């Protein structure tokens, strides 16, 4: 899939005051019509958005959000694939390349809609920045998310036959890789105190899932007041349960993929689920080079990785 620089029709200048003309944004080649459709998308007042970069714990958070928004209907959650309950906005256009039907899964969803997207703030619907629908953003250490993305890509056929080290070297060869990741997260980090934004990290979810569940439930006005319900949520969202749950392992999604190498080597979607797992998967020199590129962008934005990952939060 060839990715190119794209320019949205307008920018969220009401939210973040910066020189947006310098913000490099990327999406699949020949997707202007799709991006315009998204830009002009009509939102409903009770729409909730989960926005992340790929492999940052989206599915994990999405499962929690869906349950909170749907009266903790565990039976439905265990019966229906997550992608059907909560569609991924860009999925259809990326897989089927059919503009006509691209937004249909979201349009046909009953309220309250929980919509997943990996788009940057400026590429999300303009109504979202104006009407300020609730957004939950999850960040993760980029090295862990890139390793995770590799295994995901192998299962989906895109990286089949390529080693993790080869894949990572290709990422490093892209001079925009660090900026794409850090700026995506930093924009939402800057909005983290807005009443309509809840910003967190995979690392924080690993450290204190109960705390995150509490925070998110209050953020969505669906507080969890009973300990047995909290216990049930913690169990349903545990790595072990999510790993064996067919509805949270993107089986429906995998079945849609048409790549000739799809399914030749399969890695479970809920795979390793660790913080800093990259340390025993990447070469030391790759880690050093990636961290140097990332640090440059962090410094330009006057923010640290600890801040973006909320590592210093109590
Ligand atoms: P790994 O490949 O590092 O294991 P996303 O949903 O954004 O694509 O993120 C997928 C990553 O989240 C995978 O990371 C997956 O294992 C991890 N994950 C999903 N559910 C999890 C859970 N309950 N606990 C810990 N990690 C989880």
TrEMBL record:
Q: Which InterPro entries match?
A: P-loop_NTPase (IPR027417), Sulfotransferase_dom (IPR000863)
Provide the protein name: Sulfotransferase domain-containing protein
Q: Which Pfam families match?
A: Sulfotransfer_1 (PF00685)
Keywords, ordered alphabetically: Transferase
Q: Give the source's domain of life in one word.
A: Eukaryota
Instruction: Cite the Sulfotransferase domain residue spans from the record.
Output: 45-298
* UniProt similarity note: Belongs to the sulfotransferase 1 family.
Q: Name the PANTHER family for this protein.
A: SULFOTRANSFERASE SULT
């Amino acid at each position: 899939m060839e990715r190119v620089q794209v320019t949205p029709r307008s920018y969220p200048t009401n939210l973040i005051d910066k020189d947006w003309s310098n913000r490099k944004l990327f999406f699949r080649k020949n997707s202007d019509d799709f991006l315009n459709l998204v830009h002009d998308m009509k939102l409903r007042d009770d729409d909730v958005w989960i926005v992340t970069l790929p492999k940052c714990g989206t599915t994990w958070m999405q499962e929690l959000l869906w349950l909170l928004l749907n009266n903790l209907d565990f039976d439905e959650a265990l019966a229906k694939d997550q992608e059907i309950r909560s569609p991924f906005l860009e999925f259809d256009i990326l897989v089927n390349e059919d503009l006509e039907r691209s937004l249909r899964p979201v349009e046909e969803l009953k309220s309250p809609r929980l919509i997943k997207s990996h788009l940057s703030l400026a590429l999300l619907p303009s109504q979202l920045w104006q009407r300020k629908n609730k957004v939950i953003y999850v960040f993760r250490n980029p090295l862990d998310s890139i390793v995770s993305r590799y295994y995901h890509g192998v299962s989906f056929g895109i990286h089949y036959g390529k080693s993790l080290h080869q894949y990572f070297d290709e990422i490093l060869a892209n001079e925009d890789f660090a900026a794409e990741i850090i700026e995506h997260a930093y924009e939402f980090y800057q909005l983290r105190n807005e009443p309509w934004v809840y910003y967190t990290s995979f690392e924080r979810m690993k450290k204190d899932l109960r705390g995150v569940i509490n925070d998110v439930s209050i953020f969505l006005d669906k507080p969890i007041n009973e300990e047995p319900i909290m216990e049930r949520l913690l169990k349903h969202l545990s790595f072990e349960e999510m790993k064996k749950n067919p509805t949270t392992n993107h089986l429906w999604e995998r079945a849609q993929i048409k790549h000739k190498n799809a399914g030749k080597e399969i890695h479970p979607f809920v795979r390793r689920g660790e913080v800093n797992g990259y340390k025993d998967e990447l070469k030391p020199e790759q880690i050093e080079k990636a961290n140097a590129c990332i640090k440059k962008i962090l410094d330009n934005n006057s923010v640290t990785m600890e801040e973006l990952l909320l590592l210093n939060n109590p």
